[in-house]
Amino acid sequence: MAYTNEEYYDMLMALGECHGQYHVAARRYTELYPNRARHPSARVILRAAQRLHETGSVLANKHDTGSNREARNVRNVENVVHSFEDNPEKNIRVVAREQDLSYATVQRILKEEKLHAFHYTCVQHLRPEDYQRRKTFCENFLTEVDRDPRFPSRIIFSDESLFTREGIYNSHTCIIGATKIPESHDLETFKLIGR
């Protein structure tokens, strides 16, 4: 918590009374104001005097503190946007590492550019070449049921529509950054880039 103007004034008065000796001024301040919640160290008094001499104010310049605000410059914004235009399936962490930016900065850039993450949604879709295979499957299934009425009870039908070599497909691990929903229908499951 910053000191008030009144507290800084009292520090400088104590410093003047002690002829510029900061350690003595810190002890004198404690003697003069024993009921105050906090007492400055010699270093605080020294910095207040230096700021007054250099800037004309004892208050700290809060505008020069914090992290570098130049991360979202035009060049970085263009680089991030081009990176996602070249490969919309790219991961934010990967782009942040490649561009030497923080994850939050890349997120802010994407938000400002109105680029949103879209998750693939797996839908069952029959292609023209699938119809004959489905028909054959159904005919074979009915033939087996005619031979053995308990045949369906020995089959496990899963509700998962897509399996990969790595296991069940998870749509949350594959994100595309775009301003509109992609119209991609074919999905090469073994070349997905997950996060």
From TrEMBL:
TM helices/strands, residue ranges: none
Domain DUF4817: 5-58
Pfam family, one: DUF4817
Domain of life: Eukaryota
MF GO annotations: nucleic acid binding
Xref: InterPro entries: DUF4817 (IPR032135), RNaseH_sf (IPR036397)
Protein's name in the database: DUF4817 domain-containing protein
